[in-house]
Amino acid sequence: MNKDVLAQKEADVAELSKKISDSSSVVVVEYRGLTVAEITELRHALRNENVEMKVYKNTIAQRAVEQLGLDGLDAALKGPNALAFGHDQVAPARVLADFAKTHDKLILKSGIVDGAVVDEATIKTLAGLPNKEGMLAKFASTLNAPVIKFALTIKALAEKKGQAGEAPAEEAAA
Questions:
Q1: What's the CA gap between 96 and 77, in Å, rounded?
Q2: What residues have CB less than 8 Å from 126, skipping those under 6 apart?
Q3: Bridge-partner residues for 83, per DSSP?
Q4: Three-state SS string across the chain, please?
Q5: What is the DSSP letter of 115?
Q6: pLDDT-based confidence at residue 42 (cuts at 50, 70, 90)
Q7: Are 29 and 109 contacting, i.e. CB atoms less than 8 angstroms apart?
């Protein structure tokens, strides 16, 4: 093999390894049968969520995964695949799963979340979760719930006491 070609392949493996390790989640999808317009639509939806999708040769991807010590992704790296990289654990899975609902030719295969290989079922479960901001909002509302209940209880007691105090005054005036 030509030294230049070998050097380029090694550089591609190093680039992909870095990209995988820098990402919070990576989702492997098969895009066979999608039109150029559909792929463009998918890339646009992914870009809106700060997710990058790129096609790599399967051998390059397999070597990068081996280099990182991740087992179990070899079966998913067969056929025409694309990898979606996100800094949010949920965003790539959510966007790809939503797109797959309307485009049955897009197949979710596997992925890597926080350095662990996950299967299709886990990817679909992640897709049902809200993004980081949504989770923080739910957490904040959970923290606020006891305070709100306490405030409503105090308000109800004050109203009840106010009504009980007004009744004798009205009877005395009559």
A1: 17
A2: 25, 89, 90, 93, 94, 113, 118
A3: 28, 54
A4: CCHHHHHHHHHHHHHHHHHHHHCCEEEEEECCCCCHHHHHHHHHHHHHCCEEEECCCHHHHHHHHHHHCCCCCHHHCCCCEEEEEECCCCHHHHHHHHHHHHCCCCEEEEEEECCEEEEHHHHHHHHCCCCHHHHHHHHHHHHHHHHHHHHHHHHHHHHHHHHHHHHHHHHHHC
A5: T
A6: very high
A7: yes
What does the pLDDT read at residue 88?
83
How wide is the angle at C-alpha 109 spanned by C-alphas 59 and 44, nearest 5°? 90
Nearest to 37 by CA among 94, 105, 85: 105
Q: What is the pTM of this model?
A: 0.70
pLDDT in tens, 57-76: 989 999 988 888 888 787 78
Q: How far apart are CA 161 and CA 157, in angstroms?
A: 6
Please tell me the distance from the alpha carbon of residue 128 to that of residue 51, in angstroms, as a whole number: 17
Neighbouring C-beta atoms of residue 8, cutoff 10 Å: 11
